C-alpha cells in the first residue's frame, strides 16, 4: 500500500519547466517585495519622530518579524521548489523552518491583538 505523501511527491517532481519558472518567479517577487517594503516602512518609522508612539512600535515589530521570516524561511522554500519540490536540508532543518514559520504567524496574531487593545486606550 503506497503512502499518499510518496504518491504526491511524484506529481510535484514532474512539473513542467514553465510551471517551475512561474513558481520561482512568484516566490522571488514575494521575497523581494516583502523584504524591501518592510525595510522601507521600518526606516520611515525610525526616522520620523512623529511616529514614535505605541501603535507604530507595534508596526515596527511586525515589520522586523516579517523581514526575518522572509529572509530566513522563504529562501528554503525557494530552493525546495527549484530542486523539484524536494526537501534536501534534512529533518532538523525542516522542523526548525516550520517552527519559525508558525512562530512568526502566532507572533503576528499576538501583536495585532495587543495593538488593538493598546490603541483602544490611547
TrEMBL record:
PROSITE patterns named in the record: G_PROTEIN_RECEP_F1_2
Annotated InterPro entries: GPCR_Orphan/Phoenixin, GPCR_Rhodpsn, GPCR_Rhodpsn_7TM
Domain named G-protein coupled receptors family 1 profile: residues: 37-122
Membrane topology: Multi-pass membrane protein
One GO cellular component term: plasma membrane
Protein's recorded name: G-protein coupled receptors family 1 profile domain-containing protein
Role noted for this protein: Orphan receptor.
Organism: Gorilla gorilla gorilla (Western lowland gorilla)
Record key words, sorted: Cell membrane, Disulfide bond, G-protein coupled receptor, Glycoprotein, Membrane, Receptor, Transducer, Transmembrane, Transmembrane helix
Subcellular location: Cell membrane
Gene Ontology MF term list: G protein-coupled receptor activity
Lineage: superkingdom: Eukaryota
Gene3D superfamilies in alphabetical order: Rhodopsin 7-helix transmembrane proteins
PANTHER family associated with the record: G PROTEIN-COUPLED RECEPTOR (PTHR19268), G-PROTEIN COUPLED RECEPTOR 85-RELATED (PTHR19268:SF7)
The UniProt record lists the keyword Transmembrane helix: yes
Transmembrane segments: 20-46, 90-112
Amino acid at each position: 500500500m503506497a503512502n499518499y505523501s510518496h504518491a504526491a511527491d511524484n506529481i510535484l517532481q514532474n512539473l513542467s519547466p514553465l510551471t517551475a519558472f512561474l513558481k520561482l518567479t512568484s516566490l522571488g517577487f514575494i521575497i523581494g517585495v516583502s523584504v524591501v517594503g518592510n525595510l522601507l516602512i521600518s526606516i520611515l518609522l525610525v526616522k520620523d519622530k512623529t511616529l514614535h508612539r505605541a501603535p507604530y512600535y507595534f508596526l515596527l515589530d511586525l515589520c522586523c518579524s516579517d523581514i526575518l521570516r522572509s529572509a530566513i524561511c522563504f529562501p528554503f522554500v525557494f530552493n525546495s521548489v527549484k530542486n523539484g519540490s524536494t526537501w534536501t536540508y534534512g529533518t532538523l532543518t525542516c522542523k526548525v523552518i516550520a517552527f519559525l514559520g508558525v512562530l512568526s504567524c502566532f507572533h503576528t496574531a499576538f501583536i495585532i491583538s495587543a495593538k488593538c487593545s493598546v490603541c483602544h486606550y490611547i
